Amino acid sequence: MARPNRNANAALRGRPHARIGAVLAVGALVLGICGALGDLASAAAPGAPTGCGVRVTAPSTVTLTPTIAGRRRTVIVHVPQGYAEATKVPLVLNLPGSGETALQQELLTDMNATADADHFIVAYPQALIAEGTGYDWNIPGVPLIGGRPVPAGAANDVAFLTDLPAYLEARYCIDPARVYATGISGGGRMASQLACDASKIYAAVAPVAGLRRPTPCPTSRPVPVIAFHGTADPVDPYDGHGQPYWTYSVPQAEAYWASQDGCTTKPTLSHPDPTVTLTAYGDCHAGAVVELYAINGEGHEWPGGPKLPAALTALLGPQTTAISANATMWAFFNAHPLP
């Protein structure tokens, strides 16, 4: 496996995610989506809850501003093509990284297209702790960038993300047995946290460039986990030894989850692409599976996502198309509903 780029590491010391968020905002212009951003930002939230059986426009992308767990929040929701009000569909929560916004995560991952093709609703919740041009998640017991403490009185994001699916289920025809969480970087670490603290709600999780096994981890059941990580990631290094929140390696995080899920001690290795190594733990309790896709030479990006501006890859490291995180995680999610 390639080692993280030490020069890139040096360039990213301090508050890298604030700079990344700023470049992502510029990247939106580069991608030629200015008009779409304005339309999305001005989208009105729906009125009364709908749920199953009530007409909802599809496809559509709206910005909701609910008050959940005592705080007003921002959530972008995409309803896929072919949505029918009487047919329950899965829900995927896609969490932005540190210093990023819900809108930037929507652009970075292009998951709306996957939702349209595979018929699920995707929601992009936004954190609340200000970080540069974006926001950070309040992950229990974990410091922010540079080891900074979470501000006093910060929103309880575990409570928010635990309650959000029910809020969305009251408005859209969602199958509560098929609710999933993914996210990149800080969003991936938050998805890892949800596997511990909200395993009765989230059937499976898919951290991208952010797999951790929180301690304590009071999950009520074995949780299927699929993760993606570039070996040349300069922000959250594959081999660990990064920010104060990023100590142990990504393979160690996977091994911790395999132990958590009661999997066999010896994983299997395969290569779905010459530059991709899949490490998979099977024979886990209750049919759970723990999988890690290591992408050789990939930086701190969403595998298979839209092509990023050079200004951004200069910070995040090389971008590859060796594997589609969207397609791969959706196949995994589809195979693992709540028991």
Q: β content, as a range?
A: 15-25%
Helix and strand run = HHHEEEEEHHEEEHEHEEHEEEHH
Shape: globular
What's the CATH topology label?
Rossmann fold
Strand line-up in the sheet with most strands = 1-4-6-5-9-10-11-14-13-12
Task: Offer a quick outline of the entry.
The protein is an alpha/beta fold and 339 residues long.
Can you tell me about this structure?
This protein is an alpha/beta fold. The protein has a single domain (7-47, 57-334), classed as Alpha/Beta hydrolase fold, catalytic domain (Rossmann fold, 3-Layer(aba) Sandwich). Helices cover 29% and strands 21% of the residues. It has 10 helices and 14 strands. It has helices at 6-11, 16-30, 34-41, 102-109, 111-118, 157-169, 186-197, 250-260, 310-316, 325-334; strands at residues 60-64, 67-68, 71-72, 75-79, 89-95, 121-125, 129-131, 134-136, 174-184, 204-208, 225-230, 268-273, 276-281, 290-295.
Summarize the helices and strands and which ones pair or pack:
Blueprint: H1 6-11, H2 16-30, H3 34-41, E1 60-64, E2 67-68, E3 71-72, E4 75-79, E5 89-95, H4 102-109, H5 111-118, E6 121-125, E7 129-131, E8 134-136, H6 157-169, E9 174-184, H7 186-197, E10 204-208, E11 225-230, H8 250-260, E12 268-273, E13 276-281, E14 290-295, H9 310-316, H10 325-334
Parallel strand pairs: 5-6, 5-9, 9-10, 10-11, 11-14
Antiparallel strand pairs: 1-4, 2-3, 4-6, 7-8, 12-13, 13-14
